[in-house]
């Protein structure tokens, strides 16, 4: 009996000293929101609870004592927007609050575009994000141009040798192992413009063998557009997903041909090619002056005349950067031609030569010039945006001269959805979220559902609109109420919160 009594007392004592249940984690309850969940489903009224970095529950929820409650009555709640073609890696560690992105609801940016891997490397970039996170998430591709520069150095204006291609393939495998989504190309730019299709195809096979994807600024968006699209689709026939970057018809002779392009892509999809596209909602691009001369024959008078007649008029070429003469920034080629007293074609060639000389004198500068060129049709942009397999992108920078960096997503919502009704609200949100995630292979983001990462945006559909213009490229959009990244508010009440919950998103 004594033993039995002792054991009972011991059990009672242990029960009394057993640790109490851990308190419920503090959450955020977003109440009575009009939910567009990213799937394309119609809107519905729902509550969403965030706990830590995940969505805990969706439905008709009862507030807990530990919840911070956000009244979303009359507002739309959507997944955070995913920018599938971005240059937000440029200056991210200087602009960690990423106001350009969070103020328009972007929570994840996909970089490493146009053939350029982020600095110093895919592995180095993602590791730095781990130690010094930004306000938003980043995923990246491995850039063909960066691989080519490393393998060929300054001697890149030719086809790669088998040994050089082998070095590129080995470096690509390292980038893929570090978490790159796949391979990107910028085949209208140096050094990628000098690569043969066989080189690109071989590297695409390397990416495909690791489950990677392919995204491309194709060889031409004007003169040789159709062969460039054909090259993209040939890579898609390897069986890997392929994405047409910032789809556009950037030459007067191509205007109105969007239906023909979409028919080509639809026929490829019907034949088994997993081709998709991203689009930004502007009729003007930003690039370098040299893209106006795919044969790099800048002194050829006929080539000059063709570029200024068919691609972009002198009045439609606005300098966004010009290191040799910074006062030219914000001026058009027509303005500079008048200042110099030289013909537009000759002025254009001279600007290119001056920029190249400056770059030779400043080899680590990152480039001497950029230009914003007006060369697309508004109707074509709308048709491309409406294609079911197109998603929205910015192609923008955190502190760039093109307004797309601050306004692409809100421009789509305000001007193409609310005003022009090109697509429905549910479809537009799908294009910005679940469709974007699927197109680049990002998981667990892009849909509002229990267990998904709590990347969310709360917006006012009556007010949402872009305000950035070429003259004021960093004007902040209206109508984005709150942006959450991994459960933490990074934009609220018209300002950045100073939180940096972003992460590197790696391919699995």
Automatic annotation (TrEMBL):
This is D-aminoacylase domain protein. It comes from the Bacteria. PANTHER family: N-ACETYLGLUCOSAMINE-6-PHOSPHATE DEACETYLASE. Residues 68-205, 393-490 form the Amidohydrolase domain. GO terms for biological process: N-acetylglucosamine catabolic process. Keywords: Hydrolase, Plasmid, Signal. Belongs to the metallo-dependent hydrolases superfamily. NagA family. Residues 1-24 form the signal peptide. InterPro entries: Amidohydro_3, D-aminoacylase_insert_dom_sf, Metal-dep_hydrolase_composite, Metal_Hydrolase. Gene3D superfamilies: D-aminoacylase. Domain 3, Metal-dependent hydrolases, Urease, subunit C, domain 1. One of its GO terms (molecular function) is N-acetylglucosamine-6-phosphate deacetylase activity.
């Amino acid at each position: 009996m004594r033993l039995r009594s002792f054991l009972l007392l011991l059990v009672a004592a242990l029960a009394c000293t057993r640790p109490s249940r851990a308190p419920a984690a503090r959450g955020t309850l977003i109440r009575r929101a009009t939910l567009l969940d990213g799937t394309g489903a119609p809107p519905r009224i729902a509550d969403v609870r965030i706990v830590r970095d995940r969505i805990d529950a969706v439905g008709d929820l009862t507030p807990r004592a530990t919840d911070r409650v956000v009244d979303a009555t009359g507002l739309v709640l959507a997944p955070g927007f995913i920018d599938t073609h971005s240059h937000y890696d440029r200056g991210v560690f200087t602009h960690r609050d990423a106001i350009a992105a969070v103020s328009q609801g972007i929570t994840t940016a996909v970089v490493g575009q146009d053939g350029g891997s982020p600095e110093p490397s895919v592995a180095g970039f993602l590791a730095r994000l781990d130690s010094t996170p930004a306000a938003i998430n980043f995923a990246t591709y491995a850039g063909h141009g960066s691989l080519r520069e490393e393998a060929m150095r300054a001697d890149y204006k030719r086809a790669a040798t088998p040994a050089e291609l082998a070095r590129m393939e080995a470096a690509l495998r390292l980038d893929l192992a570090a978490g790159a989504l796949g391979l990107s190309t910028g085949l209208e730019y140096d050094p990628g413009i000098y690569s043969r299709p066989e080189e690109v195809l071989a590297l695409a096979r390397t990416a495909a063998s690791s489950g990677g994807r392919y995204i491309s600024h194709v060889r031409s968006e004007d003169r040789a557009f159709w062969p460039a699209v054909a090259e993209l689709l040939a890579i898609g026939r390897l069986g890997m997903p392929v994405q047409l970057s910032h789809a556009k018809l950037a030459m007067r002779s191509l205007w109105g041909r969007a239906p023909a392009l979409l028919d080509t892509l639809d026929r490829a999809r019907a034949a088994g090619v997993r081709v998709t596209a991203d689009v930004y909602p502007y009729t003007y691009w930003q690039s370098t002056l040299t893209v106006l001369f795919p044969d790099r024959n800048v002194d050829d008078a006929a080539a000059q005349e063709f570029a200024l007649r068919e691609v972009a008029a002198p009045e439609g070429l606005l300098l966004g950067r010009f290191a040799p003469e910074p006062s030219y920034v914000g001026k058009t080629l027509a303005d500079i031609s008048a200042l110099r007293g030289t013909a537009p074609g000759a002025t254009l060639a001279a600007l290119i030569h001056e920029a190249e000389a400056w770059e030779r004198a400043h080899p680590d500068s990152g480039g001497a010039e950029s230009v914003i060129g007006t060369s697309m049709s508004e109707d074509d942009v709308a048709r491309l945006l409406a294609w079911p397999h197109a998603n929205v992108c910015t192609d923008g920078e955190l502190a760039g001269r093109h307004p797309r960096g601050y306004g692409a997503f809100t421009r789509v919502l305000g001007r193409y959805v609310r005003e022009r009704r090109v697509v429905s609200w549910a479809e537009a949100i799908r294009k910005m979220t679940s469709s974007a995630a699927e197109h680049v292979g990002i998981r667990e983001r892009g849909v509002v559902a229990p267990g998904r990462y709590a990347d969310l945006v709360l917006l006012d559909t009556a007010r949402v609109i872009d305000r950035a213009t070429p003259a004021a490229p960093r004007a902040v959009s209206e109508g984005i109420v709150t942006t959450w990244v991994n459960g933490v508010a990074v934009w609220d009440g018209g300002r950045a919160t100073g939180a940096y919950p972003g992460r590197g998103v790696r391919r699995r």
